[in-house]
Amino acid sequence: MTQVRLLDSIFTRLVAWSIAVCIVVVLVLGALVGAKFEQLSTATQEAAVNADVTTLAEAYREDGVTGLARRINERLAFSAPAGTAPYYLLVDNDGAIITGNLRGWPEGFDVGTEPRSIALPDGTRVYARAMMLAEGKLFVSRESSLDEMILNEIGFAFVAGGLFVVFAVGVAGRLTTVRLSRRVGRVIQAFQNPDEKRLEQLAKDRDAEDEIGELTRQTSETLNRLNHLVDSQRETTDLIAHEMRTPLMHLDSRILKSLKTAPDDATAQGLSEARSDIRGVITMLESLLDISHSEAHRGDPRGLHPVDLSDLLEHVAEIYEGSAEETGHHFEWEIAPGVTFLGEEMQLTRLVTNLLDNAFKYVPKGGTVILTLAEGPLITVSDSGPGIPYEDRDAIFDRFRRAKGNDGSSGGSGLGLALARAIARRHGLDIRLKPTMRGATFEVGREKAKAEESA
């Protein structure tokens, strides 16, 4: 049975796309939240530094440098939360330090009206602003590492949350994929083996309210109708065969009675030819019915049972060995032991005998016919006859296609190989004409797709 690999399943692809979308959404949201937090953090830091500068400037206007230094020392006396420590530096016009918790003026930092982010000599990142005083310069800054830590925590939270979402979607998708694949698998199995039990199970799908449930129910009803049509077609063809065969056999019996009245030679010859034609029509009719029956049941396991091909071909070979001695042919066979196959014994027998009859028909007296059976199974019938003309090779298995014999005439009804192919396909096998330098070689084995799957 052909099965879709899990990696090739449409449900697996949907889950993969869902996971990819989740990852993209988490990344985009993380980037947006991070950018927004960074923007708010910058605005907050700038506002805090500007407020600090404004307050200190007011203290300077009221009490001068002495009051400003006192206010700075008061602020440094308070313990600030980690990552938000303030940094001050008050210097006179000569650059001498009046007060503050920095050892020197940050290199390259000039007086400005807007705070900006800089790195202090020890590597600490701060938002800073400097202002010019009549008696010196004031440097004000606040550490920004807390906001960076918070931003990192937010990033970590999004990564962890994203991984959890991806894992949850993956697990839920996996469970859903397995469940849906099983349901679709039942539909596929019903198409491959439409037996009544499997179709009854489809009709009782517990999840029949969704789309797949509707597909399952419709599949069950459709295959049931097809089975009924096939059964009706088989009954009709069997009835036609019976209705046509019976009068033909009665006609043959009347001709046989006429022959027993000892007519003249010309009449007897005509009646014998008529009997031969009638039997040919009966044989052709039976072959056509067998072909239709086999094609109608192609892929249907009903009626198939384990068959010991080795034993079956041994019996066929023993029968043809005696016939070959009478016709002056050499017949050889090589049968691998213990080869079994699921099929109909009578049909498989007819498949092999049709190939052998075809070989003995076209191989001249003294020629060789070989029958082999190998594991697989692989049945081969080869001969040393004239072979199949190149222009007939593509159509040799068509109905009413006759290959020319040694004398240039066409024998038979042209249904032997067509029936052999129909029987082979009914059993999931393929019959092939193998290219050879001499004679003809027919191989019967598993269809290529099924052989590759078994391998």
Automatic annotation (TrEMBL):
Its main location: membrane. The keyword Protein transport does not apply. Gene3D superfamilies: 6.10.340.10, Histidine kinase-like ATPase, C-terminal domain (3.30.565.10). The lineage of its organism: Bacteria, Pseudomonadati, Pseudomonadota, Alphaproteobacteria, Sphingomonadales. It comes from Croceicoccus pelagius. The chain crosses the membrane at residues 14-35, 154-173. This is histidine kinase. It is found in: Membrane. The keyword Metal-binding does not apply. Keywords: Kinase, Membrane, Phosphoprotein, Transferase, Transmembrane, Transmembrane helix.
